[in-house]
Amino acid sequence: MISFEDFKKVEIRVGKIIVAERLETSEKILKLEVDFGLEIGKRQILAGIAKFYTPETLVGQLCPFVVNLESKIIAGLESQGMILCADDGSPVLLHPDKEITPGALIR
Fold first, then answer.
1. What is 4-106's CATH number, 2.40.50.140, 3.40.1000.10, 3.40.50.740, 3.40.50.300?
2. pLDDT averaged over 10-residue windows placed end to end, the chain, 107 residues
3. pTM for this predicted structure
4. Which of 57, 52, 59, 56 is nearest to 34 (CA)?
5. Rounded to a whole number, what is the distance in angstroms from the first to the last CA of the chain?
6. Is the separation of the CB atoms in 81 and 33 below 8 Å?
């Protein structure tokens, strides 16, 4: 168990995927360019969902992302956040049930 104070440290925001690409060096990783609105801007996020989603189906999607993680090098590229998915034996993307502004904070 973690405290509510620890949970409040995690910054989760809605991002709009504007570019999605396969990596030639990995069958598992997709490189995403995600728009988080004016406050944060665009970020590159690498996600291990290539076996379950094609880049074409992701462009335009609104999804939740953790935006205050330290950057991490994955497959030789910098990832500046993490997409959140449900796990039902494979990743399942989560989406808002109506249109929302990219960068909206999830509480």
1. 2.40.50.140
2. 95 98 96 97 98 97 98 96 96 96 95
3. 0.95
4. 59
5. 18
6. no
